[in-house]
Amino acid sequence: MEAAERNVSRVLIRALTERMFKHLRKWFVTHIFGRSRQRARLVSKDGRCNIEFGNVDVQSRFIFFVDIWTTVLDLKWRYKMTVFITAFLGSWFLFGLLWYVVAYVHKDLPEFYPPDNRTPCVENVNGMTAAFLFSLETQVTIGYGFRFVTEQCATAIFLLIFQSILGVIINSFMCGAILAKISRPKKRAKTITFSKTAVISKRGGKLCLLIRVANLRKSLLIGGHIYGKLLKTTITPEGETIILDQTNINFVVDTGNENLFFISPLTIYHVIDHHSPFFHMAAETLPQQDFELVVFLDGTVESTSATCQVRTSYVPEEVLWGYRFVPIVSKTKEGKYRVDFHNFGKTVEVETPHCAMCLYNEKDTRARMKKGYDNPNFVLSEVDETDDTQM
């Protein structure tokens, strides 16, 4: 009995050990080795482009300063605020230095021991700190009344006019840049969301690739237009390798692909027909494909009349063959339409042909069965009937 119990214990321990090592191996493959095998994406899920420019000429870099407005708008917030603070502090300090030079040249500083009846260019500018404060008061038009320009120096009057004009330009540019940065349509695009996965299933008797998109705001996108690009590496007949070869993918809803009534989540679909690049793919070969499907949604923001673009991408691992999306729109007892975003990205498995070619071959077979086709190999042979029956 003891020997049998020991054997049973050893078997249990061995089974538990093997199961534990199996789970550990699966965890390492998924979290460590799996990350190294992630496909490179040109467009991330939130629409950012994963591309960098190398070996750009120095002369080309100076072109960005020609269009300084767009350059400042494209800066990140931390760099924009650095430019904002540097522009004001730098101009205040620069003009403060100029005011100090005016006082020094006119010998209004205390180290020159000016007489009491002498009228200075700027009252109460007795040092660099006072000159900086007067520059700040002039440019931001505070005007405390303690420091002011007199009519003694034409240079001081000219410098006052020049700083006032330049201060207005700096204020207008920097405040306008921050306002334009805040109101850019990119922020509106954040409230447009796509499903994390795309599905392939039958819709209206056709094999389709379906994607769900939703507008999280009640304000509409006017003149919405949706389309896609399939990016993959191709080799031309001449032997040229094109890494980012683009193929147009037409997406439609039941009313077309333009002027979308985007008040509720929409399920857009692409019909996989003979002209589709997905036609020769199958459920078994889809994960081994190397492509990236980029989906674009263009529209005009209703509240600001600004044009915005939302984009996302899907790799083969994010395309589920044989699934469809769960319905999310329902009608309440009060007569309102309710959208349940809890089921926005959920899918259910449905019966689907494992390839588009199989579906069309099946349809052709059914069509032939309904129609009559002559068999060219069929030969009708006539048989002479003889009465061999004997009475």
From TrEMBL:
Record bears the keyword Nucleus: no
Residues crossing the lipid bilayer are 83-105, 156-180
Any idea where this protein resides? Membrane
Report the InterPro entries cross-referenced here: Ig_E-set, IRK_C, K_chnl_inward-rec_Kir, K_chnl_inward-rec_Kir1.1, K_chnl_inward-rec_Kir_cyto, Kir_TM
Which PANTHER family does the entry mention?
ATP-SENSITIVE INWARD RECTIFIER POTASSIUM CHANNEL 1, INWARD RECTIFIER POTASSIUM CHANNEL
Domain (Inward rectifier potassium channel C-terminal) spans 192-364
Domain Potassium channel inwardly rectifying transmembrane as annotated: residue spans: 43-185
Name the protein family.
Belongs to the inward rectifier-type potassium channel (TC 1.A.2.1) family.
Q: Keyword set for this entry?
A: Ion channel, Ion transport, Membrane, Potassium, Potassium transport, Transmembrane, Transmembrane helix, Transport, Voltage-gated channel
Q: Which GO terms describe its biological process?
A: monoatomic ion transmembrane transport
Q: What is this protein called?
A: ATP-sensitive inward rectifier potassium channel 1
Q: Which reaction does it catalyse?
A: K(+)(in) = K(+)(out)
Organism listed in the record: Microtus ochrogaster (Prairie vole)
* Its membrane topology: Multi-pass membrane protein
What's one Pfam family here? IRK
For this UniProt entry, what is the primary localization, expressed as one broad class?
membrane
